Amino acid sequence: MDNSVSHKIKEESVELELKQIKEQEDGSGLEQMTRSENEEQRMKGKKIQKDKTLKQCKVCHKSFKFNCGLTVHMRTHTGEKPFSCIICGKSFNQKGNLISHMRTHTGEKPFSCLTCGKSFNQKHILNCHMRTHTGEKPFSCKTCGKCFRHKNDLNSHMRIHTSEKPFSCLTCGKGFNTKRNLTNHMTNHTGEKPFSCITCEKSFNQKGHLNRHLRTHTGEKPFPCMTCGKCFNQRGSLTSHMRTHTGEKPFSCVICGKGFNAKRNLTNHIRNHTGEKPFSCGTCGKGFNHKKKCSLLTVAPHFSLMYLCFSTYVIFWLTCLPSRKG
Fold it and tell me: Looking at the whole model, is its pTM more than 0.85?
């Protein structure tokens, strides 16, 4: 069969499937109901009667206003996925999820942002996107009050308070509070550095690290302090700086209790207790507990960077460089 004919038949099959699903939804939309106000109004318009008593799940005891909500919820326990994609065979527990998935095959993106025109294949993704324009952060942490645009971001944040780390590295066993952090960590084992700087060709294992590095070339400092106006090239640097205004010191030494406004300052301080000196002079071998006590210097174009102690640094400039100039 000709490829163009086969492709056309597949497109028609997808369109027919979507049409059938939507027709079924119009007739029995109860399976898609949620407890949102808009959905409740729609259900009232269809004269759906609301039970006086809540329906409770016998497994986890979660309650629902409608039988249909309980029916859909029960599939999370049973694993039932009665709605299958005719293209790839992937199954879903709700008809609406199947409809959204079908758009990945058709390329349909019916939900457009009125501000920037960007289109999406799901309405809830559009709603999340709109918050980048409005600045709305409707999900707040009940522990510290921090607000987030997306519920998933709040869920990840909550693990900071609970210390939950559900994502574990299969290689070393280290746990992480988000899947993204685990993915980034895995590159430490594989050595993969897929993100390269087009200016100096330096490579990084995370895109965020590359973006941060690029600002060293462009001089861009997109994170301004709203209090004093000082700008920073990293969001983390701004966060640490803000604590100089608020006086907040969230990082405490477990040995002496001293507080610090930045984690790196705590790390340097801890070395005063442990005696660790990870930075050494490349010439005399003297060790130091943090980088600031060394001067980073390129001795020659064909030599690698070395950490030099201050005395060696001075001697180098007084003796070596004049002779090199001569």
Answer: no
